[in-house]
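EI: anyone free to look at a 276-residue chain?
SC: sure, send it
EI:
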Amino acid sequence: MLFRRLFLCALLVGTCSGLLHAALQRWQVVPLIAAAEVYESTAEAHEPPAMPAHGESAAAHEHDHEHEHQHDANEWQPADGLERTGWTITANILAATGYALLLIPLLAWWDRSRVGTAASWKTGLAWGACAWLATFALPGLGLPPELPGMGAAALRSRQAWWLLSVVCSGAGLAAWLLARRNHWAWRCIGAVLLAVPFAVGAPQPEVDAFSAFSGDAAVQMRLLSTQFVRATALATALYWLSLGALSAIVVARWVRPLIGTFGFGGVVAPAAGRAL
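SC: here you go
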């Protein structure tokens, strides 16, 4: 019963937040990506063909080049328009549902540890803001959002650093904010964790991120990149704030009374009127 309610609540929160995120992306983010793709295709069209390596025949190089193009052509990707929009909405809803499955139990545990009075839309906003800091703002200081066509470091290196940053940021914020008064040791640990990813250093591209573009295209891509960072920051902030607020609301409305029926821990929950 409890798991079923948690899942249904997460699905409700994920659907609402996912739709909101998709709308914000369509309004602010997608036009910037589409504009960058135009410049990317222009840069690819004027890119000179790579010279074959020493000792490599031109025929073999041409065969490899054709094989790469065939491989890229065989890769499935949604068509522009309704299909691409539909899959974007689906991905946003699934991701938001997954995040809600993490947020709702954590908020429920936090609410129960404070005798069933902590979860509200205001505290949910605070949790959502912390999640945004941990998953976007702090990692974005080292690896800002990238537009199509921009140069970047190796994918595995970026993924590893992003994961390190998210884990350290989440743990550091939790240690700093949830530590009780006068527990400076935990706050010091939190500060150290927040600094670890930046001490390691985010992987950076070996060349300028806009080296594939020339002239006016490079200038326009730099402007688009600045706008893209701002647009994604706003869209993800509203996304996480909605996730946090809605998760706290469903905890207070539907999860808290159900937890009160299980008799956990001997703490009296005012909403349920029974021992937890």
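EI: The longest helix spans residues 2-45.
SC: 👍
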